[in-house]
């Protein structure tokens, strides 16, 4: 087992270099650093189009010190699958010594993962490539000004799920992608948050350890798209965790394990408040809507407890 | 130029194969590192035959049976960036589905080969042959080679790797055959010995393999307006260098096998006054008609375009400048342009000529529509009439259309 | 910010590749925010929670100890101040006027 002591980890060279152009306080940038700090062996990265890609790879500047490729928006999973296949072909032919282990990692936002890249991801998972796919879920198309995705929570205001006289933000509940990925019966699927960095890093480590595809879904705060105070990003993410809107758990070989259980589950409104995108939900006339969100969050959390064999 | 050994000449095989299987046989001999593909009619047989080679251990390729063509081309991008030989097969809707990634491949200068069984595009759905699919991607930065028959499909597939991987080219190449007419037609062709093919394609040394983890590079950077144009200009270098390499590879291949290839192929053009310009399988029918007509005293000739991209304008102009009238047969609609894509190119190529021939355009064979020989004969007779009277008539017309 | 000389097309690597990996560290992002982050080494326990949570890798560490802030890159988001467990906090944002 590798050391997760910060004193040991902080000695390594940053694979994700300074000078990237992510917004101040960006949750994606924090998550990427935590993921990259969780393992040491050589890695090759495929990145879907999105904030991370644009901000770390606009010519002539690279924020990466490891091999990295961007192809398009929907195909980070199939691109990394191709790289992994080439690796296997070269190892088989003795062109790369088999002791030379290389990790294959893909990053995509929720747009590139839940939506437009969903099919490619599902295909790559089913085919069993030895890859780790990390979804940097900030609940919307934040690179293009904050449009809705299927990861956008119900009630959230985005530029394509507006608040007006008739509609009060996004009308649908979010897609539960982590469970969908677990349903592919891949060796490892997990949900994590950068506010629990050790939990996140252990999950990333485990994802690389298993033989076969692994998926980690990380809730990343987005001060720009959530209309929140950049300083308090990790606090907001933690509120999502503590309200059980974003439970931290892992599914390994079909066994569900909750990795963090809030001592006191906070009401969903505690997670929604102070975020500009949910402001309208706190109006008295939206009380019913707010209640329906609480009911749905509870339902999913209770199901998770049941699946994990825990007491409700 | 290197010639095949006596041993090799003896171990050439004459076999009966469909066009699809001719390509699959070439793939077996090439033994790419990675093949990522999704089956689509009429190229499915290529993928199926190759999957059998994989199952029987005849190749050591990683065969990735993807869930879509978009992922097939994406996996090819990843694999090629990794630094090895990569191939895919598709056509029609599959090619359309790949569209987004086709420009990534050429923009990143990743050499790879894509076999295409040309097929019509929806709507209406039609599984039969025409060139709408590859013509729709004619400016995506890929080199296009069109094959007349199974033999050419086999030969072109092998040569395509040498062209794509040439350090001065480093550009993806597609090898097209006509859906069904060639893909499903059983023809007798020559298959070269495995070791000759292996020697001909040689070892591929990638420029910046991503799997060389000690020398990391970044593929697929974003560009602001300050660099995009410079990168697109830089990309063009491969295309500009391609004609010379295509010809040189065609000569080398000819020396080894006896089958020589260039950018275009001329048939009885030495004294031809009336020429048809066409690509792929129809060229075979045109040759038959020419032989007939020559006996009847019509000075007919054929100019077959093998390399459509980069377009061999000089060769086309040189070949056609001596003629009086030309018909360009496009197996693709005009889409509102002044004619079919091949016609536009040919006509533009002749613009600099002092006394260019009259050029007309026919749209033919859409969605697998037959082109009986008598229609081709009629085209030549009209060309003769145009030359005699100087009256061109309709610029763009259809062949074998009920109206 | 270092002004780079724009290259001609002939001078670019094939395929739009970037060969100089990690060179974004040559570009300044520390000038995005007029405020400044300051570190109080007297109260710092070197727990490095600021380091693992910094989006910009701008906490300088040597021999497992914090040694300062990378002002050239720090965007002064204040995440580190939030996660700093010492009382009083060992990291502080100072507004432009004071700095």
What is the domain total for the residues of chain B? Answer: 2
Characterize the main sheet of chain B. Answer: 7 strands, mixed
The first-to-last residue Cα distance of chain B is 54 Å
Number of helices of chain C: 2
What's the total number of strands of chain C?
A: 4
What is the tally of beta strands of chain B?
16
Structure description:
The complex is a heterotrimer of chains A (312), B (403) and C (99). With 312 residues, chain A is α/β, with parallel strands linked by helices. Chain A is 36% helix and 14% strand. Chain A is built from 12 helices and 8 strands. Chain A has helices at residues 6-9, 27-36, 51-56, 76-92, 110-115, 118-127, 177-182, 197-209, 223-226, 233-242, 268-272, 287-307; strands spanning 43-47, 68-70, 103-109, 132-137, 188-192, 214-219, 248-252, 255-260. An 8-stranded mixed beta sheet of chain A has the order 2-1-3-4-6-5-7-8, sandwiched between helices. In chain A, helix 3 (51-56) links the parallel strand 1 (43-47) and strand 2 (68-70). The longest helix of chain A is centred in the last third of the chain and has 21 residues, at 287-307. The model of chain A has no long low-confidence stretch (mean pLDDT 97). Chain B is an alpha/beta fold and 403 residues long. Chain B folds into 2 domains: 10-192 and 221-257, Thiamin diphosphate (ThDP)-binding fold, Pyr/PP domains (Rossmann fold), CATH 3.40.50; 264-398, Rossmann fold, CATH 3.40.50.920. Chain B is built from 13 helices and 16 strands. In chain B, the strands form 3 sheets. Chain B has a 7-stranded mixed beta sheet with strand order 3-2-4-5-7-6-13, with helices on both faces. In chain B, helix 2 runs parallel beside helix 7 and helix 10 (282-295) packs across helix 13. Chain C has a domain at 29-94: 2-Layer Sandwich (Alpha-Beta Plaits), CATH 3.30.70.20. Chain C has a two-stranded antiparallel sheet with strand order 1-4. In chain C, strands 2-3 form a two-stranded antiparallel sheet. Strand 2 (68-70) of chain A pairs parallel with strand 9 (218-219) of chain B.
């Amino acid at each position: 087992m590798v050391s997760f002591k910060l004193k040991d980890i902080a000695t390594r060279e940053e694979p994700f270099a300074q000078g990237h152009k992510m917004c101040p306080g960006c949750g994606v940038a924090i998550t990427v650093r935590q993921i990259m700090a969780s393992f040491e062996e050589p890695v090759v990265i495929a990145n879907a189009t999105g904030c991370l890609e644009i901000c770390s790879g606009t010519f002539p500047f690279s924020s990466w010190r490891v091999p990295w490729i961007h192809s398009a928006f929907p195909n980070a999973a199939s691109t990394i699958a191709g790289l992994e296949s080439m690796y296997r072909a070269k190892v088989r032919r003795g062109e790369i010594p088999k002791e030379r282990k290389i990790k294959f990692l893909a990053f995509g936002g929720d747009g590139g993962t839940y939506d437009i890249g969903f099919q490619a991801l599902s295909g790559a998972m089913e085919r069993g490539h030895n890859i780790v796919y990390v979804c940097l879920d900030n609940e919307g198309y934040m690179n293009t000004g904050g449009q809705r995705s299927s990861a956008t929570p119900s009630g959230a205001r985005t530029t394509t799920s507006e608040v007006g006289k008739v509609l009060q933000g996004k009308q649908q509940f979010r897609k539960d992608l982590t469970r969908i990925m677990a349903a592919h019966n891949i060796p490892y699927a997990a949900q994590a948050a950068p506010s629990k960095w050790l939990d996140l890093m252990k999950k990333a480590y485990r994802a690389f350890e298993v033989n076969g595809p692994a998926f980690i879904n990380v809730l990343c705060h987005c001060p720009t798209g959530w209309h929140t105070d950049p300083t308090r990003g990790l606090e907001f993410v933690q509120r999502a965790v503590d309200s059980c809107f974003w439970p931290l758990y892992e599914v390994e070989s079909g066994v569900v394990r909750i990795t963090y259980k809030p001592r006191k589950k906070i009401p969903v409104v505690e997670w929604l408040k102070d975020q500009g995108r949910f402001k309208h939900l706190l109006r008295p006339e939206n009380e019913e809507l707010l209640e329906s969100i609480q009911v749905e969050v509870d339902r999913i959390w209770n199901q998770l407890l049941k699946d994990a064999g825990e007491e409700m | 130029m290197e010639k095949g050994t006596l041993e090799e000449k003896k171990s050439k095989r004459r076999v009966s194969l469909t066009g699809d299987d001719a390509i699959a046989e070439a793939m077996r001999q090439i033994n790419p590192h990675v093949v990522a593909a999704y089956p689509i009619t009429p190229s499915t047989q290529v993928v199926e035959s190759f999957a059998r080679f994989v199952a029987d251990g005849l190749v050591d390729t990683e065969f990735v049976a993807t869930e879509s063509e978009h992922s097939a081309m994406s996996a090819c991008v990843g694999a090629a960036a990794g630094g090895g030989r990569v191939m895919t097969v598709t056509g029609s809707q599959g090619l359309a589905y790949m569209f987004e990634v086709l420009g990534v491949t050429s923009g990143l200068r990743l050499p790879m080969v894509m076999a295409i069984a040309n097929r019509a595009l929806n709507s209406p759905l039609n599984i039969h042959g025409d060139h709408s699919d590859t013509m729709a991607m004619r400016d995506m930065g890929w080199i296009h080679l069109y094959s007349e028959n199974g033999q050419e499909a086999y030969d072109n597939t092998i040569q395509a790797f040498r062209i794509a991987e040439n350090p001065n080219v480093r550009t993806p190449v597609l090898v097209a055959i006509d859906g069904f007419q060639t893909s499903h037609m059983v023809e007798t062709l020559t298959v070269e010995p495995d070791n000759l093919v292996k020697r001909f394609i040689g070892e591929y040394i990638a420029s910046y393999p991503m799997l060389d983890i000690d020398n990391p590079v970044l593929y697929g950077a974003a560009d602001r307006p300050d660099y995009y144009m410079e990168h697109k200009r830089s990309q063009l270098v491969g295309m500009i260098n391609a004609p010379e390499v295509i010809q040189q590879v065609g000569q080398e291949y000819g020396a080894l096998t006896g089958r020589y290839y260039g950018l275009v192929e001329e048939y009885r053009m030495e004294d031809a006054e009336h020429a048809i310009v066409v690509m792929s399988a129809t060229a075979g029918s045109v040759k038959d008609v020419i032989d007939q007509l020559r006996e009847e005293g019509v000075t007919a000739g054929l100019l077959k375009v093998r390399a459509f991209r980069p377009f061999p304008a000089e060769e086309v102009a040189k070949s056609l400048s001596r003629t009086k009238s030309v018909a360009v047969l496009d197996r693709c609609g005009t889409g509102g342009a002044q004619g079919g894509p091949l016609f536009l190119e040919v006509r533009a190529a002749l613009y600099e000529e002092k006394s260019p021939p009259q050029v007309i355009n026919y749209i033919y064979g859409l969605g697998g529509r037959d082109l009986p020989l008598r229609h081709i004969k009629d085209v030549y007779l009209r060309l003769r009439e145009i030359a005699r009277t100087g009256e061109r008539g309709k610029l763009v017309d259809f062949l074998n259309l009920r109206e | 910010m270092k002004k780079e000389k724009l290259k001609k097309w002939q001078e670019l690597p094939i395929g739009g590749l970037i060969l100089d990996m990690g060179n974004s560290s040559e570009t300044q992002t520390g000038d995005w925010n007029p405020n400044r982050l300051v570190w109080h080494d007297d109260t710092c326990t070197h727990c490095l929670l600021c380091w693992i949570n910094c989006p910009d890798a701008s906490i300088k560490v040597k021999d497992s100890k914090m040694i300062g802030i990378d002002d050239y890159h720090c965007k002064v988001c204040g995440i580190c101040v939030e996660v700093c467990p010492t009382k009083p906090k060992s990291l502080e944002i100072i507004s432009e006027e004071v700095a």
